[in-house]
């Protein structure tokens, strides 16, 4: 698609971040653009990059917004084959893990997938140790 064509057109930094540390991968995951997530990962985007303001990863963003297709893409495309395994239990400065974010927003399908397919730790504590 268009995203892939743009990524192929000229060498760019796919992990370029704005003032808050948000990368293109964060933005794509937040807005549910799974094809963009996949293209960015294929171009070498760092799935574990964190926002500077709250330490969220793209997986936190996708889980919080309930974008199961993006959650799947982030977890499956970074399953270790490329050597860049995603940290499904990474904690941020607000919700905790992506699982906490999905639970907090009531995204049952994302919660189920993170637990059954991604290996999310059901016992992980958030910043309040809950």
CATH architecture: Alpha Horseshoe
Would you list the SSEs in sequence order as H and E?
HHHHHHH
Principal-axis shape: globular
> What fraction, in percent, of the residue positions are helical?
40-55%
Q: Tally the beta strands.
A: 0
CATH fold topology: Serine Threonine Protein Phosphatase 5, Tetratricopeptide repeat
Strand fraction: under 5%
Determine the structural class based on helices, strands and strand pairing: mainly alpha
What is the CATH class name?
Answer: Mainly Alpha
Give start-end ranges of low-pLDDT stretches.
Answer: none
The CATH H-level homologous superfamily = Ankyrin repeat-containing domain
Q: Largest sheet at a glance?
A: none
Radius of gyration: 14 Å
Number of domains: 1
Could you explain how this protein is built, in words?
Helices cover 45% and strands 0% of the residues. The radius of gyration is 14 Å and the shape is globular. The protein is built from seven helices and no strands. It has a single domain, classed as Ankyrin repeat-containing domain (Serine Threonine Protein Phosphatase 5, Tetratricopeptide repeat, Alpha Horseshoe), CATH 1.25.40.20. By secondary structure, the protein is mainly α. ANK repeats lie at residues 20-52, 94-127. Pfam families: Ank_2 (PF12796), Ank_4 (PF13637). This is Ankyrin repeat protein. InterPro entries: Ankyrin_rpt (IPR002110), Ankyrin_rpt-contain_sf (IPR036770). Keywords: ANK repeat, Repeat.
